[in-house]
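Lab notebook, bench 4. We co-purified these components, and the gel suggests they stay together. Before we commit to crystallization screens, I want a quick structural picture of the whole thing.
Request: model the full complex, all chains together.
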Amino acid sequence: MIELVGVSKSYGNGAKKAVDNLSLTVRPGEIFGFLGPNGAGKTTTIKLIVGLHKPDSGSVKVNGYDIVSQTLQAKRQMAFVPDTPEVYDRLTGLEYLNFIGDVYGVGPRDRQERIERFASTFELTHALTDRISGYSHGMQQKLVVMSALLHNPPVWILDEPMVGLDPRSAHNLKELMADHTRQGNTVFFSTHVLEVAERLCDRVAIINKGRIIAQGTMDELRKGQSGETLEKIFLELTDK
Amino acid sequence: MRSAVWPLLKVQLLNSWRGTTAKFTGTKSRWGLLLLPLIGMGFIPLVLAISMGYVALYTVMNMTGQGHILLTLALTAGQLVCLVFGILYVISAFYFSKDLSVLVPLPVRPGEIVLAKFVGILIGEYLSMAPIVLPALVAYGLMANVSWLYIPFAVIIYLLLPVVPLVLAALFSIVLMRVTNMRRNRDLLRVFGGLLGVGLALFFQFMSRMQQGGNSQQAIQEMINNQQPLIQSVSRYVVTSVWATNALREDATALGFPSFLLYTAVVVVALLLMLQAADRLFFGGLLGGEETRSSGRQLSQSELAQETGQVRSPLWALFLREVRLLNRTPSFLMAGVLPPILMPFFMIFPLTQKGGPLSGGTDLSRMADSPWVPLIVLGATLFLNTISAIPSSAISREGRWFWISRSLPIPPRVQVQAKMLHALLFSLFNVVIAMAAMIFLRVATPLNLAYVLVGGALAGIVSSYSGLLVDIFRPHLTWTDPQQAMKGNFNSLFTLVVNLLLALVTGGVAALLYWLAQPALMPGLLILLAIEGWALGKVTGWLAEKNYMEYEF
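Here is the predicted assembly.
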């Protein structure tokens, strides 16, 4: 579960308000899509949730733990896949996964089973012993997804996860996200691919200029709008 | 279609100028330019020393009517500097610069890209050569009876001087990169560059030993007599220096102009040759290194079980990460490891020379029982720890991967402890060097060795935490090249100041202990180092907890 209450964040000594009094709740077992134009505040919001940025005001809770005052407990509840999948390029893929496994205390049996399963899902088995510096963008993205799922996090946060993935891998990732929520976990992701959000998400929120301008299920969003598809609704709302 | 050289050149020159000023002044602000004259003043002692040497050389050589040898030697030395450093600059600019992915798809000839990059390097070379060549041109101009053509010829010759050696460097690099796959092995080039630097440093060390007689006329005469074959071969093989000398020398009115024309013609031909080579070979060498390779090795189930079967503690996992990342990044490893290894050599070597305190031999056994011996060795160990950039770049080295550390559910103070343990490993290596030096100097009594071992480990903890403290205050996380994380990072300089203060405090307490109760000197000092290490550890951990969340990048 993710709870944001009245969260604000500015850059440049308050000159630019990236997130403005934002409140949001994402429930367990839910896939939540976070949409918005470029520069709307999506990545900043995500960085506030995962603790990469500190909010100026408001509170962010992950599974009941406050990200500022109970940082470590909150971080144990989640995993993050950033928009640029940059990981230590001098390590091999397996060394990186073992590092994450050690830090999150993943036991040998779970570790082996999950690495084997995810490497097979993302066709990365042949590259596990290679240095990450030799990986393509997509391969790095898959490795970060694997590392995120290694400790089976109750809350999984992804920023533009489909970028750089081939169609099969993108399909597999969507399956994994759906599987993860079926186990009662929470998935929160930002995307520009509105069709994916429309098909995959239980609920979506649209952010523009740092504020949530709409949120709910697809049916709830359609109410009061002339558009039928998420694309039309999105264009209508962000044009205002 | 208009030539693309000018727009390319403009961008390269802007980039080169801004990069150079930012590097020298440490700021991107235009106000940083005001610092340039101040920085230039720092070179005055070096330029004065070189100038005095040139004046003495001219005076001696002029007795036999060979004053112009000064020009030949200085112009050759300048060209050699360009050639040696040029190879590294050229490979870096031609094959590894970030803008290549933008430049290559443009509708321009490879030769045009190479020419624009070449001019960018040329600007840097004028600065590198200046302390070597300019004093010679000025000294000769003032002391010899030269014609009015001397100044314009000297200016043009200086401007053209780096061209031929840089073209040679460029041709070598273009062919090398075309026929080998070195572009994939950038690390290998870095190691090569580092070793070249070490080689040059050692060479200058031996040269200074050779010239220990100073700048007296007798000493210079002796040196010239000894180096006659070298001077003759320079005159024979480095023809550009000879032609440039002929164009400039006082008694060359008839020979001067043709030599000048010959010199400029060679420069033009060299440039044309480079353009031809670039048009034919440049893209071949450049594009060959883009592909990524996969070993394709599939782990068997038992191998995977073995690889994943060990669960380490978070502290150990973080320590292992530090070890692997440093060991596998040559820029990190060389900047961190080379100075403490080389420094003892540079420190002890002059002491063993004629007139130095160790010139009579290295047997100091008569001093072995002095209470100051372990203290001095510990001071030297602390100094060696200080010149290693490993602790003061520990957070900076994470660069764009810092998001991983920040999202880990591990307290920052534990993360910093892992970095301290890693830095301590290198400090212990310095302790081993110090103990070996004690054995070499015959002052290694069991008690002295024990003091240095325990004290060295404690001093290692102190210096590791002080370096980390500085890096926590101002980490440099926005680098794009590992070299920037080390060389463009002034944290090692600040650490030097912090450690100097710590050494002053510790030394002051040691002197007090010596004065009050001499037998308590070393035990007291060890207790003090332990307290300093503990206190610094607490402060560093507290600051890490506070600052890890604050960095925004």
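The mean pLDDT of chain A is 91. Worth comparing against the SEC data before the next meeting. The first helix of chain A runs from residue 42 to 50.
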